[in-house]
Design brief:
Blueprint: E1 2-6, H1 8-14, H2 17-32, E2 36-40, H3 42-49, E3 56-61, H4 64-71, E4 78-81, E5 86-91, E6 94-100, E7 102-105, E8 114-117, H5 120-125, E9 134-137, E10 145-148, H6 152-158, E11 160-161, H7 168-171, H8 174-186, E12 189-190, H9 192-201, H10 210-221, H11 226-235, H12 250-262, H13 268-275, H14 281-291, H15 295-309, H16 311-315, H17 321-328, H18 333-342, H19 346-357, H20 368-373, H21 380-394, H22 401-414
Helix pairs in contact: 2-4, 8-10, 8-11, 11-12, 12-13, 12-18, 13-15, 13-18, 14-15, 15-18, 17-21, 18-19
Bound molecules: adenosine-5'-triphosphate.
């Protein structure tokens, strides 16, 4: 089954020297135990494409945990999962995953597969796309030899994303999202038959749990340009499976690109807030419920709604700093960054910048204790007076401690019953 192609020279170029050294050690430890040992999945694809910085997934026809323990400098460097016979190993500054090669069957669509040990060829046949279904032998007798049972090399050369069999999306509809993600990341095309299967099987996304769907969205949000995936997903009628009002249009492309021009690597929740920016408050709540977003994700979405609803204040050149701060106080940084991208106004951008850099940090010189000493009783008045002083400072109407004390004295005098 091995292909003529030998990837040894490419691996030599692509791998950091310490990883290359690790693979040699691991290879001889596996060989000493009679276990075959392979590099699999995305790392093989990326080595062929000459894409740097890939994670290593290693597959052993044998005991992956035993092999990890044999290689590790200390057992503390190994995290194991006995149920799946997998191990994660710390090696220098790297994390390396070792997995027992396995085969899978799907008890029903959308369910997680039933897994049992199996040979490398079967391990490759359970994978999502041909370009991810290749292995490279790390065995001393055929080191670097490509194992390509599904035509992955041909598809890499033709730049195609192709499933391994027509039932692939029925087995696991999350692969539909993965197909679009790889297509856009690699600049490939989804192959025509696979595209037809996406159209046929996209209803199967309804069989996937919210947590797995959310995971797929999270993977997209960490891509370099998530908007490309959203645009293509919209074309394929997939975006609406998350929420019918989501759009992957040129507005979204522009604001996502703007996010990258503002911050080097925008947080995924910035992209999430932008994706959902134009949903109404109730649509955002439906979206949050349907994908069971985490608390920080839901916060980014709700905070961005609070900003969208007060766009008028942010864009008004006359708005006082205290009014801008009243809108933005307590909102997440990601929602503020998203707002800078989504609200198309220089005034809003300046207001948000000044809030983040200055106004947010503005606080009265007087403390609660000072107020009590001046005669303010413990209770809600304390906070409202401090907030009032903060707002006057923001608007430049109070600048000194004496003026703050004066404000408090006036407030005390103005209470009902005081003359
Ligand atoms: P990358 O995102 O760069 O491809 P990766 O290859 O490590 O990283 P993972 O999502 O970690 O991607 O998956 C590892 C490998 O497991 C994939 O290359 C693929 O072969 C396989 N795989 C992952 N998810 C699925 C799935 N839903 N169905 C079938 N195979 C999958």
């Amino acid at each position: 089954m091995a292909n003529d192609e030998n990837l040894a020279p490419r691996l030599g170029e692509a791998l950091p020297p310490e990883i290359a050294a690790f693979l040699k050690v691991a290879s001889s430890e596996a060989a000493a135990r009679g276990w075959r040992f392979y590099l699999v999945g995305g790392a093989v694809r990326d080595a062929i494409l000459g894409r740097a910085g890939f994670d290593l997934d290693l597959s052993v026809e044998g005991d992956a945990i035993g092999l990890a323990m044999a290689i590790a400098a200390s057992p503390d460097d190994v995290t194991v999962h006995h149920r799946f016979n997998t191990a994660r190993l710390k090696w220098g500054g790297h994390h390396i995953d070792l997995v027992r090669s396995r085969e899978e069957t799907y008890p029903r669509p959308g369910a997680l597969p039933t897994v049992r040990p199996g040979p490398i060829n079967m391990d490759l046949l359970r994978r999502d796309f041909t370009v991810n279904a290749m292995a490279v032998s790390l065995n001393p007798d055929d080191w670097g030899c490509l194992i390509d049972v599904c035509g992955g090399l041909r598809d890499i050369r033709q730049r195609l994303i192709r499933v391994l069999h027509p039932g692939s999306f029925i087995d696991d509809a999350t692969r539909i999202w993965r197909a679009v993600r790889y297509e856009q990341r690699l600049g490939f095309r989804i192959e025509p038959e696979t595209l037809k299967l996406i159209e046929r099987d996209r209803v199967m996304l309804g069989t996937i749990t919210p947590d797995r769907l959310r995971y797929e969205l999270e993977c997209i949000l960490t891509e370099t340009a998530p908007e490309k995936v959203f645009r293509r997903a919209d074309e394929l009628g997939l975006l609406s499976t998350w929420h019918p009002s989501l759009k992957g249009d040129s507005w979204l492309s522009e604001v996502c690109a703007r996010a990258r021009s503002l911050v080097e690597k925008p947080h995924p929740d910035v992209y999430l807030a932008l994706l959902a920016w134009r949903l109404t408050a109730s649509e955002k709540e439906e979206f949050i419920a349907s994908l069971r977003f985490t608390k920080p994700q839901a916060r980014a979405l709700r905070d961005s709604q609070a900003i969208a609803e007060n766009g008028g204040i942010l864009t008004s050149p006359e708005a006082k700093p205290s009014a801008v701060a009243a809108v933005l106080h307590g909102l997440s940084r990601d929602s503020l960054v998203a707002a800078k991208c989504a609200v198309p106004s220089g005034v809003a951008g300046d207001n948000i910048d000044r809030f983040m850099n200055e106004w947010k940090h503005s606080a009265p010189l007087l403390t609660g204790e000072d107020l009590k000493r001046l005669g303010v009783a413990q209770g809600p008045d304390l906070k409202s007076i401090l907030d009032g002083i903060r707002d006057l400072r923001l608007d430049g109407l109070i600048c000194s401690r004496a003026q703050e004390e004066n404000f408090v004295m006036e407030w005390l005098k103005s209470r009902p019953g005081e003359s």
